[in-house]
C-alpha cells in the first residue's frame, strides 16, 4: 500500500493541515504526526502505526492516544520505503531498489535489521501470509520470499505479471496483484514454489492498490476510481460495480460495508459497498495528497503527503435514519476462518454503547483487547492480526473473541493457522 511515487507532488503551499470534512458529524480530525520523509504506506498493529516513510525509512508512531501520536522509534532503510506489513515481531518493508527489508520491532523504541532480500527490480508493496512475504516488484511481477528464517530470507519462486506490479493482497490460495496498466492479476499460490496465473481483469485505469474482502477485490484504479471485481471464480473475474472518485485512487482499505479510498489530491473518499453493484459515497475529507489508508475500529489512518493523519469516522449510516440501523446486538463469525495472517470481526449495535472486544485463549487468558471505548449505533468491524498485547504473534490454535456491551455479552470461536 505504497506507491511508486518517489517524487512527491507538493500540491499547495498555503493550505491548513486540518482540512474540512463533508460532514463533520461523521468524519472528524483527531490528530496527526509529521514525518521527516513522505508517507507512502501505513500499517496499524496494536498501539503503533508503522509508516513507510519514503527516503526516511520506517517510522514507528505510538498511536495509543490518537489525538497525540508520538514517535516511538525509527529505522532508516537503504532506499525508499514504499510499503510496510507487520506480522508478529517483524515489520516487512518494500524498499524500492533495496528489495525486502525485515525489521525486528520487538522493541519499537529500538528497531533493528533482522534480514533482507534484494528483489530483481523495485519493491513497491508487500503482504505477509504464513511463512512467506509476497512482494509486488514492479517490472518483475510477484516475488515470493520464504521468511521462515527472517535472518536469511530466500526466494521461493516468482510469477511475472504483464506490467508493473504495484501492490499485492493475499487471501486463501490466491495473491491478487494490482498490476498498473494491466489491472488485476490473480495468481494461484497454493504451492508458493510454483505460482501460476489463475485469471485477470483489465481495469480501465491504472491499478495501484487492491484489497480483498469476501468474494470481491476492491481496486484503487487511479483516474478510474474504485473498481469492484467479483472474484468468486478466480479464473473468470468480472466487474461487479465501480465508483469514479474525483481524484486519483492510489490506496484502498475495506472495513465492514465501507471502502476507504486514498484519492490523492481529493483526500479520503468513503464509499458504501454494501451493494457492490451500486457503491455510493457517504463522506469525504479534503487533504493534501493521500496515497494509503488503514482502518482500525472507528479510526482511519491516512498517509497524507508528509503526515500521518488520524480521522474518526463516526455514524457512517447516519444515526438519524433508524431504518438503516441494526435491530439487535450481533457478533458475527470472523472472516476468514481459519486464518493465518489477519481476520475481520464484525458486529452490530442498535444503540450507542460502551464496547469491549477481547481475544482469549482456551485457558481463559486474555490475549489482546481490540476495543475498549464508547461506540455509536451501527455496523462495526475490527481487524485482528494474530498478535498479543506485546505485538508478538500468537501460536496456532483455537481462540475466543468476546464482545461486551452495556446490554449483552457474546462469545465466538475462531482458529488461527500458521
Can you describe this structure?
There is one protein chain. With 418 residues, the chain is mainly beta. The chain folds into two domains: 287 residues, Methylamine Dehydrogenase, Chain H (7 Propeller), CATH 2.130.10; 95 residues, Macroglobulin (MG2) domain (Immunoglobulin-like), CATH 2.60.40.1930. The chain is built from no helices and 35 strands. The strands form nine sheets. It has a four-stranded antiparallel sheet, with no helix packed on it. It has a four-stranded antiparallel sheet with strand order 2-3-4-5, with no helix packed on it. Strands 6-7-8-9 form a four-stranded antiparallel sheet, with no helix packed on it. Strand 4 and strand 5 form a beta hairpin. It is globular and about 55 Å long.
List keywords for this structure.
single chain, 418 residues, mainly beta, Methylamine Dehydrogenase, Chain H, Immunoglobulin-like, 4-stranded antiparallel β-sheet, disordered N terminus
**Percentage of residues in helical conformation:** under 10%
- Enter the CATH topology name of the largest domain: Methylamine Dehydrogenase, Chain H
Percent of residues in beta strands:
over 45%
Distance between the termini: 23 Å
CATH architectural arrangement of the largest domain: 7 Propeller
Amino acid at each position: 500500500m505504497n506507491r511508486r511515487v518517489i517524487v512527491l507532488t507538493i500540491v499547495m503551499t498555503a493550505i491548513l493541515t486540518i482540512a474540512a470534512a463533508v460532514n463533520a458529524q461523521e468524519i472528524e480530525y483527531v490528530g496527526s504526526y509529521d514525518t521527516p520523509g513522505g508517507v507512502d504506506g501505513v500499517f496499524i498493529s496494536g498501539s503503533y502505526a508503522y509508516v513507510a516513510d519514503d527516503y526516511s525509512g520506517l517510522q514507528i508512531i505510538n498511536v495509543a492516544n490518537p489525538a497525540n501520536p508520538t514517535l516511538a522509534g525509527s529505522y532508516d532503510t537503504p532506499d525508499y520505503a514504499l510499503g510496510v506489513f507487520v506480522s508478529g515481531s517483524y515489520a516487512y518493508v518494500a524498499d524500492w531498489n533495496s528489495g525486502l527489508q525485515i525489521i525486528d520491532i520487538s522493541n519499537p523504541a529500538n528497531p533493528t535489521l533482522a534480514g533482507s532480500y534484494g528483489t530483481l527490480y523495485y519493491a513497491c508493496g508487500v503482504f505477509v501470509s504464513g511463512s512467506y512475504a509476497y512482494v509486488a516488484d514492479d517490472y518483475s511481477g510477484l516475488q515470493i520470499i520464504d521468511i521462515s528464517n527472517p535472518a536469511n530470507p530466500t526466494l521461493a519462486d516468482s510469477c511475472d505479471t504483464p506490467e508493473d506490479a504495484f501492490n499485492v493482497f493475499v487471501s486463501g490460495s490466491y495473491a491478487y496483484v494490482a498490476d498498473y496498466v494491466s489491472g488485476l492479476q490473480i495468481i494461484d499460490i497454493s504451492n508458493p514454489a510454483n505460482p501460476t496465473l489463475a485469471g485477470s481483469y483489465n481495469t480501465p485505469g491504472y491499478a495501484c492498490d487492491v484489497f480483498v474482502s469476501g468474494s470481491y477485490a476492491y481496486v484503487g484504479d487511479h483516474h478510474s476510481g474504485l473498481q469492484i471485481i467479483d472474484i468468486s471464480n478466480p479464473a473468470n473475474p468480472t466487474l461487479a460495480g465501480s465508483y469514479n472518485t474525483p481524484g486519483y485512487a492510489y490506496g484502498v482499505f475495506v472495513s465492514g460495508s465501507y471502502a476507504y479510498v486514498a484519492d490523492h489530491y481529493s483526500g479520503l473518499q468513503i464509499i458504501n459497498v454494501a451493494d457492490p453493484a451500486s457503491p455510493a459515497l457517504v463522506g469525504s475529507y479534503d487533504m493534501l495528497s493521500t496515497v494509503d489508508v488503514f482502518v482500525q475500529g472507528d479510526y482511519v489512518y491516512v498517509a497524507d503527503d508528509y503526515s500521518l493523519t488520524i480521522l474518526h469516522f463516526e455514524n457512517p449510516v447516519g444515526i438519524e435514519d433508524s431504518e438503516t440501523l441494526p435491530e439487535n446486538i450481533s457478533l458475527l463469525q470472523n472472516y476468514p476462518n481459519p486464518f493465518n495472517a489477519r481476520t475481520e470481526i464484525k458486529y452490530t449495535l442498535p444503540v450507542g454503547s460502551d464496547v469491549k472486544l477481547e481475544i482469549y485463549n482456551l485457558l481463559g487468558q486474555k490475549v489482546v483487547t481490540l476495543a475498549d471505548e464508547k461506540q455509536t449505533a451501527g455496523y462495526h468491524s475490527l481487524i485482528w492480526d494474530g498478535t498479543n498485547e506485546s505485538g508478538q504473534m500468537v501460536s496456532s490454535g483455537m481462540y475466543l473473541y468476546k464482545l461486551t456491551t452495556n446490554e449483552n455479552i457474546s462469545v465466538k470461536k475462531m482458529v488461527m493457522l500458521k
